[in-house]
Every structure is written in C-alpha cells, then in structure tokens.
C-alpha cells in the first residue's frame, strides 16, 4: 500500500510562560494531519523552527535533541508496523501506536477462541490444496476441546489470549486425559494443534511471551498391528458367500497390496492408473503433501479386473468402496469369520503392505517410503522397528527349540 508520510516537530509557546513552550509533533499521511504533544518543555531561546530541533551545544539542547531522536524513531517504527500489516491507516493510527493506545485495543480484541476460529476458517478454505479434510477436522475438534475446558475451568465462554500460560496448558492436558478420556498421544496431538494458535498470537505480537516455551511432551511409540503372512493367506483364500462382506474383503485385500489409505482408495480414478516405464501398470496419486507411486501387484490387479464391470465403477471411481465407518464395521466381521484375533481396521491394511508385503520380502525401506507417500524416511522406519520386534520374537522361539535339542 503506497502512502505519502511526513512528520514535523514544532513549538507551541506557553500561555503562562513567555520564555518557554511545549514541543508538539505533527504526522501527515496522504495529506491528512494529526497532532499530539511530546510533553517536553524547552526554552524558546533554544528552539530552531527551521530545523525542528534545539539549537546549540549546551547539555540541555543535546538532551532535548536526543529525546526528539527517540520520538522520531518510535514514529518511524509505528509507521512501518502499519505498512507491514498492509491495511489502510491514517496519521491518527500512527499517533495511537506511539501513545500505546492501540496496544490496549488489540489486547481487548484478541480473544483466544476467536483467533482459533479465524485459523480454522482459513484451513477449511485450503482443504484440498494445502490441507486434508482430516487435518481440518482435527483443528475443529481441538478448538471444541479448548472451548469446553475454558467453560469448565474458567466458568466463561472465552478468555483473552494473553491469559494463556503454562498452568492453562498443563491443566488442558490433564482435562483431555481425565474428563475427555483421551489417550496420551491423542491428548498431545490436540495440544499441538492448540500450540499452533498460540504461535500465531506470539508471531503477531498479540502476546509478549510464548507460554509453550517450558512445555515438553513426547508421543509414546505405539505398536501398529498388521497381518502376518499366514493371516493374509487365510484372508485371501477364505471364501465368503455374503456379497457385502465379500466386497469389503476384496477391497481390504486390495489395500494390503497397495498401501493406500481410505481417502486415496475412495478417490482412485482411471487417470491415477498409468503404464510405467517397465510396461506395467502403476498407481500414481497426489496426496495432500506428497506423491505416491505404487506398482500394481498381481493380487491387486486381479481385484481391479474383478470389479471393472461393477455398476458403481466408472472412470472417476475404480473401486466400489463403502463409507469408512461401514468398512471398519464389516472388516471386524470378516476377522471373526477368518479366525483372525486382531482389531482389524481399514488402515491396518496399509500397515500390512508396509511390513508383511514389502519390507519382509526385502523391498528397501526407501522404496516403501516412496510408495506410502511418506514425507520423510523416519515415518517409515517405525515399520522397520516392528519387524525387528517380530524377528526378536521369532528368535526367542528358535532359542527354546535349540535348548530343547541341547544346542
């Protein structure tokens, strides 16, 4: 935003003292003026109207000019602050910042849940571009938890963001784990979502300190379940006559051999399947933050062929998938039918692809990471740790057998 900005110091003579006056300064922005006093008194004999400064080398003159230099610097800082915001401003706005009037106004206006809602609104508008739907949903849930915590603990609907301190944060964590019955990792993730809101306030100078500075928390490593090779064989070979459950079993199996998450399977279209440099068909999808490239294995290819004539399959939808809630409910039925004593979920198929199908069969972890669309290798390395645990368990069995054989 282009503005024409200037300032001027001048002396207003005292009505009671003919030999002194008060220094005022005038701000002009795009031709419109605003005036206020510096509150500094100076003898008329020391004032130079042409330069807008005290004249001479006396100690008093030097002190006045040092003061004016500081005022001038504060004025320039106030002007630059308004320019950086990019909004329309007037000469009075500059004076208000200099006098500190804007600070009180901002502190009154910057309310915690209002900032949270503004952030969530921006995230919602960027869903599909910079954020996934799940991310937007987590921020909405985090805001709801903060809102309910404020009502319970502070007996009010909202609080100024400057009232958030270390006690608020630790209290919120305790509330999530006790009142909301959140597991440790879930509680930490909600607090991390909340932390972003506080960082926004801190960056915008709505608060003078970061209350998260001394808050430390780590996510606990959770073992991710997956199907073993034997369980996967049972699943594939099990014949299920119920059409609904048979469909769900096939889609789950398809995911065990592609590693796609539910959202990627649901939007999988004909344009996502391409012929690669090797002459084989590949699935290439653009995830929210990354891209994934997955060669289609024989089992997955057979399932695509099986449902190619399904009435719900088209160029835009290659898989006749149900809602995530129904898929997870039916997968549990399938686990009972197959005698698999694990809490099967749709996402467990992705873990199975990473471990049993790929890493266990010698596929390098870098390739697995690329296929899963992980942003960094560290995320994929967790699956390697799971396999290390499996190797340890297998070796424990071997040790027992060797001991029995006196080896």
Structure description:
- With 407 residues, this protein is of the alpha+beta class.
- It folds into 3 domains: 5-107, no CATH class; 110-203; 229-396, hpI Integrase, Chain A, CATH 1.10.443.
- The chain is 52% helix and 12% strand.
- The strands form 3 sheets. The chain has a 3-stranded antiparallel β-sheet, with helices on one face.
- Strand 4 (47-48) and strand 5 form a beta hairpin.
- The model has no long low-confidence stretch (mean pLDDT 87).
Structure in a nutshell:
The protein is of the alpha+beta class and 407 residues long. The chain contains 15 helices and 8 strands.
Pick out its properties.
single chain; 407 residues; alpha+beta; hpI Integrase, Chain A; 3 domains; three-stranded antiparallel β-sheet; 15 helices; 52% helix; elongated
């Amino acid at each position: 935003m282009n503005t024409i900005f200037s300032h001027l110091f001048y002396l207003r003579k005292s009505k009671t003292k003919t030999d002194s006056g008060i220094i005022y300064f005038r701000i002009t922005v795009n031709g419109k003026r605003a005036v206020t006093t510096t509150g500094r008194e100076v003898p008329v004999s020391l004032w130079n109207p042409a330069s807008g400064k005290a004249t001479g080398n006396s100690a008093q003159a030097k002190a006045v000019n040092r003061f004016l230099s500081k005022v001038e610097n504060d004025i320039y800082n106030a002007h630059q602050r308004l320019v950086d915001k990019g909004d329309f401003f007037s000469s009075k706005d500059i004076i208000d910042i200099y006098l500190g009037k804007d600070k009180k106004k901002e502190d009154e206006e910057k309310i915690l849940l209002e900032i949270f809602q503004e952030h969530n609104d921006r995230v919602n508008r960027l869903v599909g571009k910079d954020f996934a739907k799940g991310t937007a949903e987590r921020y909405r849930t985090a805001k709801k938890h903060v809102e309910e915590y404020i009502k319970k603990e502070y007996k009010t609907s909202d609080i100024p963001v400057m009232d958030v301190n270390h006690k608020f944060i630790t209290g919120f964590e305790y509330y999530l784990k006790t009142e909301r019955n959140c597991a440790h990792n879930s509680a930490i993730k909600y607090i991390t979502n909340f932390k972003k809101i506080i960082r926004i306030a801190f960056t915008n100078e709505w608060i003078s300190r970061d209350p998260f500075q001394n808050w430390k928390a780590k996510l606990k490593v959770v073992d991710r379940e997956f199907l073993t090779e034997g369980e996967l064989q049972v699943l594939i070979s099990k014949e299920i006559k119920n059409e609904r459950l048979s469909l769900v079993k096939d889609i789950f199996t398809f995911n065990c051999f592609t590693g796609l998450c539910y959202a990627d399977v649901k939007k999988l279209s004909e344009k996502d399947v391409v012929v690669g440099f090797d002459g084989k068909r590949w699935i290439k999808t653009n995830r929210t933050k990354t891209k994934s490239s997955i060669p289609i294995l024989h089992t997955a290819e057979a399932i695509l062929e099986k449902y190619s004539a399904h009435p719900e399959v088209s160029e835009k939808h290659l898989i006749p998938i149900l809602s995530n809630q129904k898929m997870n409910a039916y997968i549990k039925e399938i686990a009972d039918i197959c005698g698999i004593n694990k809490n099967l979920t749709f996402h467990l198929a992705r873990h199975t692809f990473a471990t049993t199908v790929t890493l266990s069969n010698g596929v390098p972890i870098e390739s697995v990471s690329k296929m899963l669309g992980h942003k960094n290798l560290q995320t994929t390395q967790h699956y390697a740790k799971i396999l290390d645990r499996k190797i340890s368990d297998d070796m424990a069995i071997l040790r027992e057998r060797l001991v029995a054989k006196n080896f």
